[in-house]
Amino acid sequence: MTGTAKATVHVDNERVIVTEYRFAPGANTGWHRHGHDYVVVPLMDGKVKLVTKDGESFAEMKKGAPYFRREGVEHDVINANDGEYAFIEIELK
């Protein structure tokens, strides 16, 4: 990914990749396609802007409330908060 969010890989093995993403206000992941199913666990309450081929939307994130997405999702994720935002992404291989 080529965005401005800071990505820290905590685990990368034959079964899973666990990455922590930290976003300054307005920072983004960069456009990417998920090659595996994945789970996101927000580390704080907040809002992210999602840019897809179909347009833009916003998602309210709740600290500790995980969500699951299937392989193939294509998007850019942007911090839509006034302060830092962070989540953990668990990609299943």
Q: What does this molecule look like?
A:
There is one protein chain. With 93 residues, the chain is mostly beta strands. The protein has a single domain (6-92), classed as Jelly Rolls. 0% of the residues lie in helices and 57% in strands. It has strands spanning 6-12, 16-23, 32-33, 38-42, 46-52, 55-61, 67-69, 74-79, 85-92. The strands form two sheets. The chain has a five-stranded antiparallel sheet, with no helix packed on it. It has a four-stranded antiparallel sheet with strand order 3-8-5-6, with no helix packed on it. A hairpin with a 3-residue loop joins strand 1 (6-12) and strand 2. The radius of gyration is 12 Å and the shape is globular. The relative contact order is 0.36.
